[in-house]
């Protein structure tokens, strides 16, 4: 995520920072936003899955499923930057 923030900073022309949260900090943010404990547990589990395994390997799954080569994060952000601009 720090690399995504760096790429956004470059594309947007202003600083974007990523602040990592511990699982306990993230749980507090989620539950304070009104998310149930169950859903918070699921989201924290997904975060752990991504951190521990899914992002640790490169696969051909995207290309196998779509028939298209995957794009870099930077390319995707450039194509979808409007979603990140302030209104």
Q: Specify the biggest β-sheet.
A: none
**Rg, nearest Å:** 16 Å
Report the count of strand segments: 0
Q: What would you call the shape? A: globular
Write down the secondary-structure element order. Answer: HHHHH
Low-confidence stretches: none
Termini, distance in Å? 23 Å
Q: Average pLDDT value?
A: 90
Share in helix = 55-70%
Total helical segments: 5
Task: Find the structural class using helix and strand composition.
Answer: mainly alpha
Share in β-strands: under 5%
Provide an overview of this structure.
By secondary structure, this protein is an all-alpha fold. The chain has five helices and no strands. The protein has helices at residues 2-12, 23-32, 37-52, 61-66, 73-79. Helix 1 (2-12) crosses helix 5 (73-79) and helix 2 packs antiparallel against helix 3. It starts with a helix and ends in an 8-residue tail after the last helix. 1% of the residues are buried. The model has no long low-confidence stretch (mean pLDDT 90).
Draw up the topology in text.
Layout: H1 2-12, H2 23-32, H3 37-52, H4 61-66, H5 73-79
Helix pairs in contact: 1-5, 2-3
């Amino acid at each position: 995520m720090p690399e995504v923030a760096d790429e956004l900073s470059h594309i947007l022309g202003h600083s974007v920072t990523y602040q990592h949260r511990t699982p306990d900090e993230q749980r507090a943010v989620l539950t304070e936003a009104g998310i149930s404990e169950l859903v918070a547990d699921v989201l924290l589990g997904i975060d752990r899955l991504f951190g521990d395994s899914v992002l640790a390997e490169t696969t051909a799954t995207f290309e196998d499923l779509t028939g298209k080569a995957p794009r870099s994060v930077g390319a995707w952000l450039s194509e979808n930057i409007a979603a990140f601009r302030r209104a």
